[in-house]
Specification:
Radius of gyration: 15 Å
Strand content: 35-45%
CATH topology: Thiol Ester Dehydrase, Chain A
CATH class: Alpha Beta
CATH superfamily: Hotdog Thioesterase
Number of helices: 3
Largest sheet: 6 strands, antiparallel
Oligomer: single chain
Strand order of the largest sheet: 1-2-4-5-6-3
Structural class: alpha+beta
Length: about 150
Amino acid sequence: MKPSEMTGLEILQAIAAGKIPAPSIAEIMPMQIAELGKGFVKFTARADKRHLNPAGGVHGGFFATVLDSVLGNAIFTELEPGAGYGTVDLAVKMLAPMPMNEEVYAEARVVHVSKRMAVAEGTIRRQDGKLLAHGTTTCLISRPSV
């Protein structure tokens, strides 16, 4: 089956299974699908020396990119074949420093999906459960013409 014939959930399942390549952002931002279902996605992510700010800490953009990815993909799991999404709004609250070279977990759940818009919320946590960041997104949905 071609990706254009697959639901968002089916595409993500195929990526997780290695049947189709992960998007290129995963090369720059080390993220992998750990778990997924309709309306829910969990990623692992790991910041490294490529993600540092001038002060030597992990750049806030790492938080934002990981949250944007996991939030958008949670929404994608709800979409039919041929539908897509684009971020309209992303709100990120960074609550603790991102550790470097340590696997963290990002997960997101869909809050609402309508014909043209979707909302999701999510978190990034250390392996011990410590909350590092919280985020929300609103995405514009593009659906195939009927």
